[in-house]
Amino acid sequence: MQRLSSFLIVTFLAALCSACGGSNMTSFIHEEYNFGFVERVAIIPFENLSEDRGAGARATNIFLAEMLSAKAFDVVEPGEVARVLAKQSVVRVSELTAEQIQAIGRELKVQALFFGIVNESMTYRDGSATAAKVNMTVRMVETEKGETVWSSSATAGGRGFFSTLFGTGDQSTSDVMRKCVKKILGTLFN
Q1: I need a surface site. Which of 5, 32, 100, 152 has the fewest CB within 10 A?
Q2: If you count DSSP H runs as helices and E runs as strands, how many of each does the chain have, helices first?
Q3: Which of 49, 54, 82 is nearest to 174 (CA)?
Q4: 78 lies in a domain?
Q5: pTM of the prediction?
């Protein structure tokens, strides 16, 4: 009987740990780059590779709000970014060359640009409840040479152990996206 109790406790703790700590996350920080040099940044509109229409714009707005909330950098207004991108005839931001990044940096008077991609944004049925899942990748590119100095990819959402067990925790895709953005920014600011 004691063996069975020990087995059940270990099984429960393993399930609890996998539910709490199982985040898919990858980060890169350029070890030689001086982030203290960065005072002013611009957020390039995020690309959307998911089937969730509008996920790129939603992610851009959430990232902007969280960046402003962090008060780490001065952030260029989105309208000014759109004006400069149109002036540079940028169609696909993922195909910008180092020279174009440098030109955009000079025009906006920024030391870095943030690029983001929504890889996945979905809501799905899980038993009797719905669950949202978001995966994003964001990178910071310095504008002097056009090189990536920070990048982070994270997944948020899905149904955790307790929400599955007790049928709680339904969150909107926007709530899950905000959690994903906070995870990503945590790798830059911590």
Answers
A1: 32
A2: 6, 7
A3: 54
A4: yes
A5: 0.82
